[in-house]
Amino acid sequence: MKKEELIYEKQTVYKKGTKAICDAAFAYAEGYKTYLDEGKTEREALKISIAMAEAKGFREYKLGDKINVGDKLYYNNRGKNLFVFSIGTEPITEGIRITAAHIDAPRIDLKQCPLYEDGGMGFFKTHYYGGIRKYQWVATPLALHGVIVTKRGEVIDVNIGEDDSDPVFYINDLLPHLAQEQSKLPMSEGIKGEQLNILIGSMPDGEDDSIKLNILRILNEKYGITEDDFLSSELCVVPASKARDIGFDRSMIGAYGHDDRVCAYPALTALLEAKDSKHTLMCILADKEETGSDGPVGMQSELMLDIINEIAFNLGANPAVVRANSKCLSADVSAAYDPNFPDVFEKRNTPLLACGAVFTKFTGSHGKSGTNDANAEFIGWLRGVLSNDDVIWQAGELGKVDCGGGGTVAKYISKHNIDTIDLGVPVLSMHAPYEVIAKVDLYETYRACLAFYKY
Ligand code: MN
Ligand code: MN
Predict the structure, then answer these.
(1) CB 241 within 8 A of CB 436
(2) Tens of pLDDT, residues 340-349
(3) Which among 361, 394, 395 is positioned nearest to 375, based on CA atoms?
(4) What pTM, to 2 d.p., does this model score?
(5) pLDDT tens, 293-340?
(6) C-alpha 134 – ligand 2 centre gap (Å)
(7) Gap from CA of 425 to ligand 1 centroid (Å)
(8) Distance separating alpha carbons of residues 359 and 379, to the nearest angstrom
(9) Collapsed DSSP state (helix, strand, coil) of residue 305
């Protein structure tokens, strides 16, 4: 046997793949950048995902509708969680090929009574969403996205700060001259949750000398709302940045919210491209992963079972058999090895940038606690599937043992007797307002999903 066959070594897509693959990766990344810019919240990502599905002939499904072989359907769960699925020609008892990614991302949400003024400035009070490092969100331009629902049921979409002519928002930080005491604090305490107040104005109302009143007048003029309408709003503060190429060679993309749209986009586009798969396919885009997958739009909801049950019953099958034969890729990101912080990574088992899609057998922390831990048999099967199309992939783990850890939706799917493994894209600066990925890793994740749906 040749040495290369005997030894397993991670290699970059540039070395292992063809030039055509690398060129295709760069072209594919253009559509992804648009997806990022137009979908900064789960609501917006869902909207653009539905538009993509409808353009490929998928139509809306409601629970209770008839389901037939050949149907291409999507289920919109409360505008935040999407199921896109197509019914294949093989018996449904062969199972469903499922991919599950999440379309929420760490950010800063407004509180329900957010508006106040202090020190000659108007502010919004906030409560952050997901695992952010608070010091990263100060002194940088921010945009406001979300909905306000009036008591008449009217839904008002808000999106300010993305257009170049829009104003942006801001969180104040301390000047270094006066930060002597703050600079001594641990990084997790330098900026506290209640200091993440959004600067939104400084001009008083003509009659009343109130900045708060002036802001309310502006909001009333623009949206027809009054202060109590914030009570039934979901307003999110996100970085006002756009997705951009990074590096002289343009090989990477910097953007807000790669985690986990960098997996949602390939999982969805691969399903929409998977023309004549005989398998029944499903792509789930979930909300609330960053806060524990709770609630009706998170992966712990019973909805996935309801939809699988409906598919099984409509096609005359036992749903338990359908689930037992289903397979799932939990499409989520992993942390790429970062030479600036080598101490937290174990280089042999950490995903390397540009070495392809990452399979994470187990997540969790402190002795694999809270993990799905995919079966070796399932991984063996997947290796065979991916090798059919020469997909370039690597095995990876999130950082060193004892350094921390994290979880994904994998365990909420596998508990329903569905073989599941985490697959995704390695990310630099995960959960930062601007994260980085390599275009070739995005593309190999897309090709991995294509092969998974196909074979
Ligand atoms: Mn994630
Ligand atoms: Mn995350």
Answers:
(1) no
(2) 999 999 999 9
(3) 361
(4) 0.97
(5) 999 999 999 999 999 999 999 999 999 999 999 999 999 999 999 999
(6) 15
(7) 10
(8) 9
(9) helix
